[in-house]
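note to self — DONT lose this again. spent like an hour looking for the file last time. sequence + predicted structure for the chain T wanted, 353 res
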Amino acid sequence: MPDNDPSTGGNEPTIVDVAALAGVSIRTVSRVLNQSPKVNKETRARIQDAIDALNFRPSLRARALAKGRSFLIGMVHNDRNALVLDSVQRGVGREATRRGYEVICHSVPVGDPGAGQDVLGFCRRARVDGLVVMPPVSDMAGLPAALQADHIPAVAISAVPIEGYGAVLLSQERQAAGDVARHLLALGHRRIAMITGPQDMISAIERRAGFVEALEEAGVGPPVEVEGDYSLAAGMTAASRLLAISPTPTAIFAANDIMAAGVLKIAAARGIAVPDGLSVVGFDGSIVAEMLTPSLTTVARPFGEMAEMATRHLIDLIEGQTPCDLDSPVLSLVPAQSSGPSTDPSDSGPSSP
């Protein structure tokens, strides 16, 4: 389909057509399209009527040339969880589309020595106007300074504050993991185990810290732990180890829903009733939690809302507007069928796997 740039000579209505129908100059139409306050209310309404009548859609290329920008937003990530990534992409896309921008997503090889240069190379090739940086990419040492040096506006999402970004939207994962511990304690559980995420990731470190701290505050010893990589296989392997302990845990907190699904799978294979024989809690609040049987108690993270808010703040920065507030979203525990009261009166903790 031809675009609306007058230089293309295409059949689509152009800014010239809008100006002619509205009886104004091309420059005045351009000011309205660029949301300039220099056009009075009556003229603005007349131009908008012409735009609607012609079904005119501004050319992204023409806007870019006029404004000296690409009108492209980059989103960098390293998330293998398709459910989480889909929600994030939709959130970024909603706000970008609303503001007249397009989105380009890029997966970064976090842990690779050249990961920082990979991000910069993507920004230069795509010529993005700014960047939404998702964890764990946002936690890479030196990345904020490198983006600043390249004059690339960036807004990050992270479980901890980070200096150097235009703004950081905090995901309160430590608090939320503490809520999981308090939930299990309130149900009477004392033999509690945890399947952590990779301990080289800040979000996983924060979840573990919040869970352990809440148990310690209640006078309960540290949980038995097995480290996982957020995959289903990791959840199954960890559950097999934990359920081989004598006495077995009465509750397992898996640091994401996918690993929690692995726990439920192993429990079912061993004939362990959930929640009567074992309570299981996940983290993420993905659609998986509702699809499982029993339905999974989990921590809901509003991925789409967080991504949308970060994108709004980023575009405000790009356009020189007063940025929107970045209030930390609420990560809420959602009780479901997989957690219930402990039926074991013993308070003794299990030995290490």
